[in-house]
Amino acid sequence: MSTESDLIQRQREVLRQARVANRTRTDVEALAAAQRVQAQQQAEGTLAAATQQAETAQRQAQVQADTELHKTTANARSVLEQTQNQVAQQRERAKASAAEALQWLDQVGLGEVYRSAQAQPAAVEPDSSAALQRAADASDALLSDIRQAVAELLKIARRRRIQIGAGVVAAMVVAAVSLVGYNRWQQQERSRTLALTLASVIARTSEEILIPAGEFVMGSPDGEGDDDERPQHTVYLDGYYIDKYEVTIARYQACVGAGACDAPQESSSATRGSYFGNPEYADYPVINVDWRQADAFCTWEGKRLPTEAEWEKAARGTDGRTYPWGNEAPDAGLLNYDRNVGDTTAVGSYPSGASPYGVMDMAGNVWEWVNDWYGNDYYRQSP
What we know:
Blueprint: H1 2-107, H2 111-119, H3 141-159, H4 166-205, E1 208-211, E2 214-218, E3 233-237, E4 240-243, H5 249-257, H6 291-300, H7 308-316, H8 378-381
Antiparallel strand pairs: 1-4, 2-3
Helix pairs in contact: 2-4, 3-4
């Protein structure tokens, strides 16, 4: 009997434990479900927050990009305006210089000659070795020539025992005036022809080229060039104008004639005894001038010498090339160098060797002055 009672009691205990286990499983499932819901809610909340942060970041990035674009546009406009202002100022200075030069030509009687040369520059050829200074002779020299001619006629009369009276003297003066007038006419014609030639050269070789604002690579890379050309670095320059050709003898001679420039230290060249002042070389580069003379000439034309950086950018452009024409080795078809000619050549004689901007003779022919003073460590210290 007790055995049966114990069995029933054990069965009841098993049933009770089963009910407890069932409730525990139900509680576990409910808890798991609640946790799943909570996790889903947290994930959705996190996703929403991340989305909101991403949208906020995107809006901030857009605002920043718009701000930078506005600044860049404003800077570009400012640079453009500065470049345009500089160009306008340079053009005004060039006009003023041209007006001053034309005024001087008018004063020496060559204004119309110069204007004709601009209208028909190709129709003039030099036919005289007389210097342009002859065209600027003062009128008081005429009296001296007449006196000299009369003195020569008096000598002839005395040798021939001609009686010298008032009428003879008057006739001598008339003859002297006629003689001087004829010689003056011949000289004037030669001078006008020469002036027309020089004016034609000046008009043809005074062209300027605009070098636009921007960066370029200055100097030589490691292993190339000289030590004072390194390190190679990037330089920004505003826009500027530079002469297309080297300064010709004709242009410098006009400055000398105006009294603003000193004549070159020597009038000869390497192989030519008569170089400066010889119309045969009017469109050849002027030589034997120091920095002071070069600076004076630029000032007279309303310009200035280029800086070393301006000269180098005009010569090589922005792609870092070694020579004005590229990276090919020099040859006699590209430049006058290594004594292959033996002396100077007319400016612009090597169009194949022009720089990327079209500036001529940036390599070879003659040395060219720049505005900077030399410093062997300048490249290591320059910005």
